[in-house]
Design a protein that fits this description.
Two copies of one chain form a homodimer.
Chain A (H helix, E strand, L loop, with lengths): L1 E9 L2 E8 L2 E5 L1 E3 L12 H6 L5 E3 L1 H6 L3 H6 L3 H5 L5 E3 L3 H7 L7 E3 L4 E4 L6 E4 L1 H11 L3 E3 L8 E2 L2 E2 L2 H24 L5 E6 L5 H13 L4 E4 L8 H10 L10 E3 L5 H9 L4 E3 L2 H7 L2 E4 L2 E4 L27 H9 L4 H26 L3 H14 L2
Parallel strand pairs in A: 4-16, 5-6, 6-10, 10-13, 13-14, 14-15, 15-16
Antiparallel strand pairs in A: 1-2, 2-3, 7-8, 8-9, 11-12, 17-18
Chain lengths: 380, 380
């Protein structure tokens, strides 16, 4: 099931409530990414404590490891990873696309689907819209994403042409139809989202959007962004597409982004975001804060007794964990460094969305946004 | 300060209470090892939650990184690592000894101390009894260990001779005297422990013990075990030394060991243990349980929906974390695997000691010990 209510709006920004089979999600929301059934370096308990409402899983990865036999022994991903709140799974499309490398030689795309060699054991595999639905049905994710082809921004340094983007977009549309048919055939009771493609061509995105909307799916995503395009192109898509999607359905911008990108996305009418940035950057010592970003490896933090951000309510910042200690952990390669940094960064992202929700509710999102920008420019 | 009371005994086994500057420690106790100011892979909060009462820090490592300048900015190790309960630091002796490798070429031992090249940056360093006391005073650890020479069991395949063991033991005794003098000169208000050496020679251990007891230190450790000797030799030292130490002072067996070793140690009159085994083994997928040990990498766990041990009260076993999930995390190299395994193993060790304390209190330690052996032999 999926129920979505827009509770209030300010400009294009929306404050909503999404009800799924495993619970309620207050939007706008950021969804931590748990590729292999784990948000890297974070205890499930910590995710609960920081107020995560929904997390992602990656269909492609979980299909290969642990495989469906294992997932089925747990009656789905929730039981397997011990997370009883909502889960969204991607379709595997982006991952097989990523296998291609710059030349695209790692996989072969046809009308049927994508043939590729398993990066785990070399097995020849075929991922199709039907297989993606079958895997996501076994995972029992609350939100199932259609299998799509992620149109590249460039291939081997050559920009994708309009003809190529159209061909790719139309393939994704045909796959959306097949996904819907298979999803229904399987009797899946969760919610299937369509994905708008079209590369950097607005009229193609509009065509994709219109045809997907005609399928009357319960939610829609914007794909093919954050794939190496210049920031201006991403902002152009954000400005173009979200508000054209049906107002009474949730809108999900895939794989985005920095704190600034999220705020911009909300201002453009996006309800849902996911990104590996908070956890991946945490493992590289890159910490997000209200007052700008902080590279914990910098020698200036060696004797800095202050918390990462004294205004932050995360587990690290409220338990006397200092910049100097995190600098030391990073220098010694200690696991606790990425663990604490991941908690902090995810808390920062989740709290950012919490502040945005409150601002929209109170009708002061634009004022909040101005103070967000000023704070971020202040410096830590 | 140090206050120690033996609350009850059964045979040589003792149930005691140790009061230190940062709190009370119920003995017998296992102390998790936090080499670089972090128990590897475990949040300080998790250590609290599992009831850790005292943790270790390594003087040698912390002297090199982050260095005293940083520690002093936090007025000691407690503030730096955010742990307000007691801390014991070793003296650095074992670590410089470990630098030697099989040939001993990595460091040079003289009457003055040990010269070696920093494994971090190659700096030529000199660690002496006085420096060790100075560093441990800066760390402000509740229990300070004397600087000693750890007598090797063998060097390059050749067993340590009695003459060599005597020479080494006598050097450690002279260093104990210098440690005591420097500890007092520094006005350190914590507790200094002496370390009994003597290799595998009981009369040398007795000589070491008698001379250390004459110094009237507040506690004593047994060193030079768990250094590559056969298990029978370790058991012989356990049977020989602990009960000869002063009955009204705490007894600490350094670097030991397996669950069976701990139970044997308590039966021989030991009050305190430390070992990297629970955390190191956790990172290698080796889990300790009441019913024997479990290698999570084994393919038999691939679809095993059971917790590690259904009788275990640890965070992993009580939050529906399954063997199959841990097997999967291990296979994918996900950090969460070692994180959960470390929590489980440390909880197992701490709970083992809790059971031992209760058994001694109730005068049923011998019965408990028989059931411990039967349970461990049952198999998981």
């Amino acid at each position: 099931m999926l129920d979505f209510k827009v509770l209030s709006t300010e400009g294009l920004a929306r404050r909503g409530r999404l009800t799924l089979n495993h619970g309620v999600v207050e939007t706008p929301i950021f969804m931590p990414v748990g590729t292999y059934g784990t948000v890297k370096g974070v205890l499930p308990q910590s995710l609960h404590d920081m107020g995560a409402q929904i997390i992602l899983g990656n269909t492609f990865h979980l299909w290969l490891r642990p495989g469906l036999e294992v997932i089925e022994a747990f009656k789905g991903l929730h039981g397997f990873e011990g997370w009883q709140k909502p889960i969204l799974t991607d379709s595997g499309g982006f991952q097989v696309w990523s296998l291609g490398g710059a030349s695209g030689s790692g996989r072969k795309i046809s009308e049927e689907g994508v043939r590729f060699a398993s990066p785990v054991n070399g097995d020849k595999l075929l991922l199709t819209p039907e297989v993606s639905m079958q895997v996501q049905t076994a995972l029992d994710s609350d939100i199932v994403m259609q299998f799509d082809e992620c149109t590249p921004y460039e291939t081997g340094g050559v920009l994708t042409t309009e003809a190529e983007a159209r061909q790719s977009m139309e393939l994704s549309l045909r796959w959306a139809g097949r996904c819907m048919a298979e999803f229904n055939r399987l009797g899946n009771r969760n919610a299937l989202f369509g994905i708008v493609q079209g590369g950097m061509f607005e009229h193609l995105r509009e065509e994709s959007l219109n045809q997907l909307v005609a399928l009357d799916l319960p939610g829609y995503a914007i794909g093919g962004v954050s794939v190496g395009e210049p920031k201006a192109q991403m902002l152009a898509i954000m400005a173009h597409t979200p508000h054209r999607l049906p107002a009474h359905k949730p809108r999900y911008l895939m794989g985005v982004g920095t704190p600034e990108d999220l705020v911009e996305g909300v201002a453009c009418g996006v309800d849902m975001f996911d990104c590996v940035m908070p956890t991946r950057n945490a493992r590289n010592g890159h910490l997000f804060t209200r007052f700008g970003d902080l590279r914990i490896r910098n020698a200036r933090y060696k004797t800095d007794v202050r918390p990462i951000d004294e205004t932050c309510g995360c587990h690290a910042c409220t338990t006397a964990i200092s910049r100097a200690y995190l600098h030391h952990l990073d220098r010694c390669g200690e696991m606790l460094g990425p663990m604490l940094a991941s908690i902090h960064n995810l808390h920062y992202y989740l709290n950012l969305m919490r502040e945005i929700r409150e601002a929209i509710e109170q009708g002061c999102f634009e004022a909040w946004r101005a103070s967000f920008k000023a704070d971020r420019a202040r410096g830590v």
